[in-house]
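Amino Acid Chain and Its Fold in Token Form
===========================================
Purpose: to set a sequence beside its fold so the mapping can be learned.
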Amino acid sequence: MSAAPTLDPGTHEPPDYQQVQSSAEFDELRRAHRSFAFPLTAAFIVWYLVYVVLSSYAGGFMATKVVGHLNVAFVLGLAQFVTTFLIAWWYSRHAARRLDPRAEAIKSRLEAGA
């Protein structure tokens, strides 16, 4: 077995990151991320603000009993946590399917050129 040649630091050209950033491949990756993350973030912020506004200005509604001692405020508060975990799971799934393969292709191309 032959040992892999060792390169001294600085003996090879660094990747041209500006070229990668301006490539169509990177643009597709960025678009895939933004088209998922931005709308979902905006929707979650609106959902959160609705909860805050209801808590501040609709006390009677939020105090409405749902089951036993559980009221609307408690149910919506728990829904905030559930929504957070669902969004994290959904983003993880989206990243694994649509973002990671594209990022890996860009990384492989960079490493092959180095």
